[in-house]
Amino acid sequence: MKKLLFALPLLVLLYSVNGQPGIVKIKNENKSWRLMLNGQPFFVKGVVGNSYLEKVKEYGGNSIRTGSQKEQLDKVYKLGLNALVNLPAGAERDGMNYNDTSAVRKQTEKIISIVRNTKDHPAVLMWAIGNELDYIPPLEPFNPKVWDAVNSAARAIHAIDPNHPVMTVIGTSLMEKVADIVKRCPDLDLLGINSYGDIYTLSSTMKKYGWTKPFLISEWGPDGYWEVRKTPWKAPYEQTGLEKYICYEKKYQSITDPENGQCLGSYVFYWSGFKQETTHTWFCMFDSTGLESPLVGLMHYLWTGEKKKNEAPVADSVNIGAFIRYQAIMLDPGSIQNAKVTAHDPDNDNLTYRWEIRNEAKYASYAGQGEKVPGPLPDLISGNKVEISFKAPSTPGAYRLFAYVYDGKGHFSTANLPFYVR
To answer: Which CATH architecture has domain 2-304?
Structure first.
């Protein structure tokens, strides 16, 4: 299979045994780019998140996208992993003004100070200047001088650290910006890209806008809430456990396609527990107690070519009454409804179930920042089996029904369905 072509042996000794900094270079061989770590080929099999790092190593991963804090980098190094280190660069959406030369200079000085103090840490793999600096919700025009500032920072980093490549990270909105980055950022070694539903066409898009250097998928995961179908009241349909499983597998096959010679690897999102972003379950790969979703075991297989001894159950679908997928579910206040979750377990473990009804969240403008987690509503659900009955809330508005499936072996899966009370 294509994905196994990159299942190289784990480089346990990512750095010299005495903890000296690694030397990381990018080479172009036979029209294919390759990351070289201490002279050896290195394909990034990474995660975004600072939790359960021991499992990254155990399950075949090799890198973390994280900050520059020494304690975190020490832990990464001790586990035999390395780090794509995020460097702080402000976005206009957060108040940064790239016309203010003094502010830009201070930001660059701060970045260089961090690099100077961190560059010799043996966990460092590469540097990332900022994250989606061009994005101003919903899609406002940005100041192109941001790329001038990025390039100045990249040039300054290279002057003090020639051993670690430098990138900036972009999202996939308004991809014509790549052509501007080509012109304004010649000192970048590669580009980091956060890509979700459009990951399959990413390579051709980069070539379309003139990017000839390598790139890294700095963040990827399920289809985003900005990409999926929505109800008439604008609630996005989250993929079920099964849909996410299929989605992650197909996306990783795309990432590791040998014909994609520009891609140096990827960081899967989100290697952590519940994170409120439209829902609390949308991006999580673990639950709040550390139970593993099917996506964790899937990454173990994609990274190593081997399946875990016991695999997670998978929530295939959830239904309310006779309503079908993508049909607007409109309920009367206080009405009694039936619901069912369909799930399967590869090991035929005995499954248990839990259900919740929550208010639809008030969405944040960017990445869930400031979004409040709606709590479960009490006294509406009867039972916790594969089929239940529930009472529709008495207050009109938008809600979601969540189903959770457990195998008792450290795993869970989940699915949810939006509905509206008239």
So the answer is: Alpha-Beta Barrel (3.20)
